[in-house]
């Protein structure tokens, strides 16, 4: 283990719901008055870190190795995602077909996600990830072969996207929980932010490389690169030091495990409300690449390079958001709601942008707030439950987040194709923004909060206070 940061060595506290009466409830063991220690919320460091400790979790050797492999894999995944969507658009001429591809890749998580979480709770996470990366490499290699031999058809992409979706059912919950085994609870929030940073940095590089590859040599080489990257990730998982992992005891199999996870999650505001907001964002606003394909092809006539550029602008904003989330001192429920609302608002504003330059600016801001929402929601859900049940809780969260994209992908593709890209992105942002406003009002009334404007305080002109607070 790496030494703790000097300013946060021994200071921790439970996650607190900032818009409810107090700390989250802790469940009791059946038939006793003792707290169920397997499902208590984690203690997390809440002191502000110095800049040199912004990514303190990278001091842990195992996590550093994992982060390098994850970074390489993310670049390759973004290359494949962009190349796949663009290839389907060129083969079919239909934005709806792109949405169907997205839906097929996420559809298995909608129906099988909870079982993936149960498997993550019951078996070794590292072995699950190695198996999943090996399967992903085979699928990417098959798609590369079909593309490079020029025999690929849209239905080939559909089948491979669906099979990759089955891999995701196991990979995603295991990956979420495995982060804690790499760094332990002390660095968990920071490690989540580091993962988000590497994902978004890869998202900045991957689309640019994909755009270049699509123009220079075709989509097949992007798929081949992803196959190689998956193999490298599996290799890095093999070389991790097992004696330095914070391995949790597998949860024994018993009846009602999925129902237990659902009931547990619904009983906690810091899990329930992020779930709800993730549902609105996932269905309407997480299929942004589908809409960007429509803007690049039908609005700005920018081709594959322009499509890669638009995705890179989103990733640039998200990268900035990832760094900002790593600096976040307190984890608040209001941060989840506000970030979701601002993400939706940026998409609404982008519909009125007069040129591609201004549209790119809007995408940078949208990417920033999207990432701020995703990291806040992810951190809150993860730190609200302990290892004994977190695989199931995270899988249910991912059902909402990923399964929502399975629904939203074809819907947003149809809207963009039949109503126009501008109206499509207006709906994509308007629904989550409205939902965030409603949720904010509900939470504020429950917690007796209100906005206070103080023109004398230049640093905090507008802030949230209790109604009884006068200062």
UniProtKB/TrEMBL annotation:
GO terms for cellular component: plasma membrane. SUPFAM superfamilies: MFS general substrate transporter. It comes from the Bacteria. The keyword Transcription regulation does not apply. GO terms for molecular function: transmembrane transporter activity. The keyword Hydrolase does not apply. InterPro entries: MFS_dom, MFS_trans_sf, TM_effector. It is a multi-pass membrane protein. Residues 62-448 form the Major facilitator superfamily (MFS) profile domain. Residues 1-38 are annotated as: Disordered. CDD domains: MFS_MefA_like. This is MFS transporter. It comes from Paenarthrobacter ureafaciens.
